[in-house]
């Protein structure tokens, strides 16, 4: 499954979103332009802004407000990436050097703040308090998710539920906001709005679960980051938790030590344990359930190219290799 069909269905609309992104990123401060341009030009799947457009299209219309809010969603995502890479000490993202590695931590944090605040300036222009409420709530919950993840680092005893809560807050919430906004701008019924929001939440959860799988099974050049990044930071992801519970005592101790100490000294041995215990298949199956739940949430909507693209996107989320 590729992104070709999905991207083709909104290609012209995404060009307008890209134009909005570049227009809104402009600043008289040279460093802001340099960092922002670097991030925008570094690629990425642009799934989150695409969801605003696809959601709107599924309800019959894509307006200039959809373009603007798609850009807002991308700005919020970009700001979190800038901040994340500083917190995590990451050196590679999307196959390129991270902004913090290139421009320094201070520049990344401050430009991230600029992009966040610009997003709020833009959403005010839509003049819709419901939109403001959704985005304000989402950004606050995302921040809570970031802090929860920080607290969970090096904790090998967290439950699957606690880990999934981080996913729902930190990653899936912005997917949910994107699909909900597309519906709100089309004045969809409350039931349809909630259905689209459920689609986004399940899709975002599936997407992050596969990211966790790829951290142990992908190719660094293809996934655009270093393998074992999460392990290096002591993040207890679901594949690690499953392998620790279902592996031999030796494997369990190895994984526990790796989570508690961080680093990549035993990456190969930990990766072998994750593969041997069936942890990756287990997490892939969970992601598949989330993908099915996403599709089920919008199964009642009228058939259209946009609806089909949303279904294809749910499939891509769990079959991708990058």
UniProtKB/TrEMBL annotation:
Superkingdom classification of source: Bacteria
Keywords assigned by UniProt, alphabetized: Magnesium, Metal-binding, Transferase
EC numbers: 2.5.1.90
Keyword flag Transferase: yes
InterPro entries: Isoprenoid_synthase_dom_sf, Polyprenyl_synt, Polyprenyl_synt_CS
Reactions catalysed: 5 isopentenyl diphosphate + (2E,6E)-farnesyl diphosphate = all-trans-octaprenyl diphosphate + 5 diphosphate
Example GO biological process: isoprenoid biosynthetic process
Cofactors that this protein relies on: Mg(2+)
Pfam families, per database record: polyprenyl_synt
Similarity section: Belongs to the FPP/GGPP synthase family.
PANTHER family: ALL TRANS-POLYPRENYL-DIPHOSPHATE SYNTHASE PDSS1 (PTHR12001:SF69), GERANYLGERANYL PYROPHOSPHATE SYNTHASE (PTHR12001)
Role played: Supplies octaprenyl diphosphate, the precursor for the side chain of the isoprenoid quinones ubiquinone and menaquinone.
Protein name: Octaprenyl diphosphate synthase
Organism of derivation: Novimethylophilus kurashikiensis
């Amino acid at each position: 499954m590729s992104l070709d069909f999905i991207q083709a269905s909104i290609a012209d609309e995404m060009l307008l979103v890209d134009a909005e992104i570049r227009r809104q990123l402009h600043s008289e401060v040279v460093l802001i332009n340099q960092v922002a341009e670097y991030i925008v030009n570094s690629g990425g799947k642009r799934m989150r802004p695409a969801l605003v457009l696809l959601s709107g299209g599924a309800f019959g219309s894509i307006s200039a407000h959809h373009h603007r809010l798609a850009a807002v969603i991308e700005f919020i995502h970009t700001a979190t990436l800038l901040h994340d890479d500083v917190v995590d000490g990451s050196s590679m993202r999307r196959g390129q050097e991270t902004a913090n590695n290139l421009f320094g931590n201070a520049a990344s944090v401050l430009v991230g703040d600029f992009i966040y605040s610009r997003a709020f300036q833009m959403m005010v222009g839509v003049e819709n308090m419901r939109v403001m409420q959704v985005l304000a709530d989402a950004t606050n919950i995302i921040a809570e998710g970031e802090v929860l993840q920080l607290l969970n680092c090096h904790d090998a005893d967290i439950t699957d539920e606690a880990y999934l809560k981080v996913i729902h807050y930190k990653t899936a919430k912005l997917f949910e906001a994107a699909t909900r906004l597309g519906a709100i701008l089309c004045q969809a019924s409350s039931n349809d709005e909630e259905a689209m929001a459920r689609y986004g939440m399940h899709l975002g959860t599936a997407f992050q679960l596969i990211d966790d799988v790829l951290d142990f099974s992908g190719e660094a050049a293809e996934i655009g980051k270093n393998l074992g990044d999460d392990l290096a930071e002591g993040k207890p992801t679901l594949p690690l938790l499953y392998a620790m519970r279902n592996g031999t005592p030796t494997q369990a101790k190895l994984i526990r030590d790796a989570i508690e100490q961080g680093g990549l000294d035993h990456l190969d041995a930990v990766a072998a344990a994750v593969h041997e215990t069936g942890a990756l298949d287990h997490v892939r199956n969970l992601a598949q359930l989330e993908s099915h739940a996403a599709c089920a949430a919008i199964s009642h909507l009228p058939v259209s190219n946009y609806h089909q693209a949303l279904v294809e996107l749910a499939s891509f989320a769990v079959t991708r290799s990058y």
